[in-house]
Design a protein that fits this description.
Blueprint (H helix, E strand, L loop, with lengths): L5 E3 L1 H38 L11 H26 L10 H27 L1 H17 L12 H12 L26 H8 L52 H46 L7 E3 L6 H19 L3 H20 L6
Antiparallel strand pairs: 1-2
């Protein structure tokens, strides 16, 4: 049973080849778009690498870049096949290569589908990575003199101002860490001594936040310190006051940002999949139609084009047999070698047992 058989005249084959040539170049541009999308997402992830605990999420941009480059190459080959499809002397050289081309194109479509799935599936890993990374970033905020952490303060401050957020979950995360370096503390001050003594670990803790948590849109001047003391500020209620700070935590802000980036790639990636599948199906029809015309020894005559020469079940069985045959040829049969050695030994024994004729 031939699957989806279509009649092709010479004029129709020419139109299909021309349309497929344009579609192939459109797919090349889509491959370039996918590659650039992967580079942009990779760059954005690397910019925040200091506040991420692992790099599992990088698999998404890595696949996008790899698939983009592979798509450019495969669809450029498809455009060359279209040019040679109407030349009886040049088209046969593509017959063997097209089998690998179909496999590559199918794998690319599967990988693009995997990117869409991973974009949603890795949200939990992204959130956990940011949770640990931001927690460490806040803890090392004061270590401006420690090698490897010198720019941690700048990174956190820029992050909070850019994404309009404060802390890991919220501004209270800053209450749990000493974010002021000891070199800027006056240890002769009674307030400093009392705060250090009141803490089991000997840390200087404040009910305050860095300046980067302040919301410039607030009408009230920023309140950074004594945020839980209602008597310290005039006309201030801790429970009802907005504190003039960003209320959203940076983890949620970054998760929303990266997920919006990856989710926005979904429609674009799905469009590329549709274009790639269209190229694959059209090229298969063109190939079988041209080969049919050449088999009839009438390159300008009418021929039939199809996706598969046999049904799904027969095609699967044929591919299975071919693969098993290839694997069988690739293996060495020790029994065959032993039988061959036994046969040679028997021949040697027979030759030795044969009497030499007398002279």
């Amino acid at each position: 049973m031939v699957l989806l058989k279509v009649k092709f005249t010479q004029q129709r084959r020419v139109r299909v080849a021309q349309g497929l040539w344009l579609l192939s170049w459109l797919a090349v541009m889509c491959g370039a778009f996918i590659f650039c999308l992967g580079v942009y997402l990779k760059t954005e992830l690397l910019r925040r690498a200091e506040v991420m605990d692992n790099t599992e999420i990088h698999v998404v941009p890595n696949i996008l870049m790899m698939v983009g480059l592979a798509s450019i190459g495969t669809n450029w080959v498809a455009s060359r096949v279209c040019q040679d499809s109407l030349d009886a002397s040049r088209f046969p050289r593509w017959k063997v290569l097209l089998l690998a081309w179909y496999a590559t194109a199918a794998v690319l479509c599967c990988m693009l589908i995997a990117v869409v799935v991973l974009s949603y599936a890795l949200q939990g890993h992204l959130e956990e990575s940011l949770k640990v990374g931001l927690r460490n970033g806040i803890r090392f905020y004061k270590d401006t003199d420690v090698p490897g952490r010198c720019f941690q303060k700048e990174t956190i401050d820029r992050l909070q101002m850019e994404f309009r957020c404060c802390g890991n979950n919220n501004f209270r995360d800053w209450f749990e860490v000493q974010w002021v370096s000891n070199r800027y503390l006056d240890f002769t001050s009674k307030d400093v001594k009392d705060r250090i003594r009141s803490n089991v670990d000997g840390r200087f803790l404040l009910d305050g936040v860095p300046f980067s948590c302040c919301n410039p849109a607030s009408p009230r001047p920023c309140l950074q310190y004594h945020l839980t003391d209602n008597t310290f500020h005039y006309n201030y209620e801790f429970q009802s006051e907005e504190l003039n700070l960003y209320s959203r935590g940076c983890r949620q802000a970054l998760v929303d940002y990266y997920m919006s980036l990856m989710n926005s790639t979904g429609p674009g990636v799905l469009s590329v999949i549709l274009i790639q599948m269209s190229v694959l199906v059209s090229l298969r029809y063109l190939q079988t139609a041209v080969e049919g015309a050449m088999a009839l020894e009438d390159p300008e005559g009418e021929s039939e084009g199809y996706l598969m020469e046999k049904g799904m079940k027969e095609t699967f069985e044929e591919v299975k047999v071919n693969v098993l045959t290839m694997l069988k040829f690739g293996q060495v049969d020790p029994g065959a070698e032993g039988s061959s050695d036994d046969a040679d030994a028997e021949k040697s024994d027979e030759k030795a047992a044969t009497p030499t004729p007398a002279s």
